[in-house]
Amino acid sequence: MLANAFRSTAERTRRRATRDRLGAVLLLVGLAGCSPEPVGGEATPLPPQGVLGREEFVRVMTEVQLIEAVADKRIYRNDNERQRLAEAYNDVWARTGVSAATFDSSYTWWWGHPEAMKGVLRDVVDALKDMEVESNRGDAAGAEGNLKNRVAGETPATSTE
After folding, report:
1. pTM value?
2. Taking the CB of residue 63, how many other CB atoms lie within 10 A of it?
């Protein structure tokens, strides 16, 4: 009976050692296996022929975001909205020299590279902020009584009329 107990303990120890070795081998194979490219791709990929480069895509995308913002705010409420949007997009294509087809293929390609697109979107937001600052400077240049753009301590006098 004692021999039986020793055999049982030895057998359990051997099984445990085999299981531990197998686990270690599987872990090594899993870690050393072929790792795929990161999910988001490169942060600065080189676009192929026919796709807008990053700087140009940011410039056109900024214009497109302005058009979309106008559409979201329903600025063209009483007009034919689709016609106004088409005119606005055609104006962007004419001013930038980029065709709608080129922009569409570029848009698809850049969104296919999420890590790079994060940077593109940051650049678009920065460009929109710069446009806003320039717009505010223009408003402040000749706008007396403009409380939004006043210099601290220079509050205009209230009207007595």
Report:
1. 0.59
2. 20
58 and 134, same domain (yes or no): yes
Check whether residue 59 and residue 136 sit in a common domain. yes
What are the helix and strand counts (H, E) for the chain?
5, 0
pLDDT digits (tens, 9 = 90+) for 67-104: 988 887 776 566 677 888 888 899 999 999 999 999 99
Q: What DSSP element (H or E) covers 16?
A: helix 2-32
Q: Is the pLDDT of residue 7 over 80?
A: no
> How many structural domains comprise the chain?
2
How far, in Å, CA of 60 to CA of 103, rounded? 8
45, part of any domain: no
Q: Helix 100-111 and helix 81-96: axis angle, to 10°?
A: 90
Are 20 and 89 found together in one domain? no
Calpha distance 53→60 (Å, rounded): 11
Helices (H), the chain: 2-32, 54-73, 81-96, 100-111, 114-141
Residue 97: give the domain boundaries: 54-140
The distance between the two most distant Cα atoms of the chain, rounded to a whole number of Å, is 114
pLDDT tier, 45 (very low <50, low <70, confident <90, very high otherwise): confident
